[in-house]
TrEMBL record:
This is Isocitrate lyase. Its cofactor is Mg(2+). The keyword Lyase applies. InterPro entries: ICL/PEPM (IPR039556), Isocitrate_lyase (IPR006254), Pyrv/PenolPyrv_kinase-like_dom (IPR015813), Pyrv_kinase-like_dom_sf (IPR040442). Mg(2+) binds at residue 183.
Amino acid sequence: MSQYNQDIEAIKALKEKMKGWDAINPEHAARMRAQNKFKTGLDIAKYNAKIMREDMANYDKDTSQYTQSLGCWHGFIGQQKLISIKKHFGSTKRRYLYLSGWMVAALRSEFGPLPDQSMHEKTSVASLIEELYTFLRQADAWELNHLFRGLEEAKNAGDTAKAADIQEQIDNHETHVVPIIADIDAGFGNAEATYLLSKKMIEAGACCIQIENQVSDEKQCGHQDGKVTVPHADFLSKINAVRLAFLELGVDDGVIVARTDSLGAGLTQKLAVTNEPGDLGDQYNSFLDGDYIEKPEDINNGDVVIKSDGKLMKPKRLASGLFQFRPGTGEDRVVLDCITSLQNGADLLWIETEKPHVGQIASMVNRIREVVPDAKLVYNNSPSFNWTLNFRQQVFDAWKEEGKDVSAYDRDALMSAEYDDTELGKLADEWTRNFQRDASREAGIFHHLITLPTYHTAALSTDNLAKGYFGDEGMLAYVGGVQRKEIRQGIATVKHQDMAGSNIGDDHKEFFAGDAALKAGGKDNTMNQFG
């Protein structure tokens, strides 16, 4: 017996025991229960942590089983993404959501648009997680509501075959609720602040939290200059804080993504504590730029001196008080960061790079895997990269190294549309198309995400509509560019009242008041124009 039918029988039995429940229809109650699978955010976090762990194990066996997500800055955007995935692919398996700190700062702060520097209210992060799951749960209710309506119509028409088919869809319904990889930036303060915010995020439904090794009060976007990292001990204390938050709330298999910005970060706020040569603090300090001290006179007022490699060294200190790493040490620092994080409680890695290059990523991951063989990455397929130019230049460089004639191409001008239909342009597009597959196979990338794609899609679609609507096209800009496409592509939002819950509300009114219910979905509802 299906869960739905079990619930009907259980509620029937309960109704017989209770007084005054004559108006309660067990089928209606079971329906409402089925349309609300998850009662709390913790239910969601526990459910999705298990899914992520299974996906990680499957990827270890077969790298073609990588996962993907898009960053969503509003619950509605996340909902429509998952509805689209189910419509086109029939399943949400291995498709997640990404919650981008960049987009929270730019679009969800009460201060207004902000740069990605952890200046927004930290509570807005947990609030967006809750909002996303509210909309995904509503997508379940919306989809099941249509199925239940269809079941009722089939039964009333005596169509037992159709009723059985719909009942099977209800019994095997796949939820729109999927894992969210949630960005906690650099932790928004000390380790206690990180713990407190982690709890809020987990209670809202987060099964996976991503944290980076930058200084929280100097945090920069991963694709901006001026990034400042912290010693490993500081970062590990925050990983511990996130883990203990998961354990306190009973999400024992919660996932932690440790992000390193060391590839593009040339500064540190403070020197690491070291107790003996070769320990973790000493390794961190060994990357510092500075001058070795030959005699006391080499030390000036206010200079800091440390012992490194058996000698006294004066690290370079900037006017800001920050210390500088030696140029060219970024990859070595990334490898040390990643190994250290995995050996101290992190589950996945994030290496922030300056370009999408499979070879570059693989060179670091292979070094990490010499120590941690199952190391795997979450990778930012960033809109901050000029993907067209990067891949065209990669093809150009590969051809040049092979000895192929590239005289027909200007490497610095490869973004030009004149190269779109060339052999180079087409091959670069093919490399772009295959980037996720190639990088998952060759560079250990378990999860591919685009941090802020819907920021760009919202701007692009709005520009196209505004240009036409306020220009010569007038109303045709909306009708031809939006509504007609919605109808023909089967986009559910064309019936926006239904998408917002009007049919669910009508059914509930009938459950509550029977024939006396005043419903919105009658013959005069203009939504009927869309069939």
